[in-house]
Amino acid sequence: MVRYIGAVYRPPSEADSLIIQATLGCSHNKCSFCGSYLEKRFKIRSLEEIRQDLEDARHMGPVDRVFLADGDALCIPQKRLVEALKLVNEYFPSLERVGIYANAKNILRKPLEDLQILRDLKLGIIYLGVETGDRELLEKIRKGASYEELVEAARRVKQVGIALSVTVLLGIGGVAQSERHARETARILTDMDPNYVGALSVIVVPGTELHREYMEGRFELPDPFGLIDELRIMISDSSFSHCVFRSNHASNYLPVKATLPRDKEQILKAIERVMSSRDRSKLRPEFLRAL
Questions:
Q1: pTM of this prediction?
Q2: What is the number of domains present in the chain?
Q3: Which of 114, 142, 211, 233 is the most buried (most CB within 10 A)?
Q4: CATH number at residue 256
């Protein structure tokens, strides 16, 4: 059985993938809203540990997709990451794709040639947390990257032919910055033009800086319809070449699945009907929401 140390987080689209912990925790681990890795001390696992997990997983049957956890395994030095991907390819000849979390600075540290090498070793998708396009808010939540760095990182990933999936956070600006957050996020999504977007809703996690702000009355979370209105603005104001847009994460009140721009008008009409009715029975119940 493959070993997992602590809680393991992965994108919803990697539900059927073999998860291998290439790192423990997150090298940044400073985002004000995130409690995922507060209990883990960051560590890059050895190739021997990764090899042992792959050996254990080999007996589970054919594997066509692998996700390298934890928080931003792209921070692994290039030589070791290349060796890890070679091992994954060696153990699973039917491998189609490897997925990985990354942050903007770790993408930007890698020359295009390095990213191309990783792509050739079947790194097929990079998941990048953007959260917001509001420059002031990016600094406040301690994202560790500027608007311009996020856009440049996205362009590098797409330039070498790796699929880009980004996440944004409904509600991260609170009530006070709700509309500006939504409009600026639509702008950065347009500038990045990712292949996939996942819109999650903020859940205030005890132990985080955001939770302290919330308890002290310095952060007010928009109500469910306020969050849905942010979603409406993000979809309405953004422009994509071709993007699979999802807000069907367990944190969201209103699941949305769309391919943009094809479904834009239809989705906006559906959202407006929900907003007009203010019928909470059409929303995901609070007890079913989760990270």
A1: 0.94
A2: 1
A3: 233
A4: 3.20.20.70
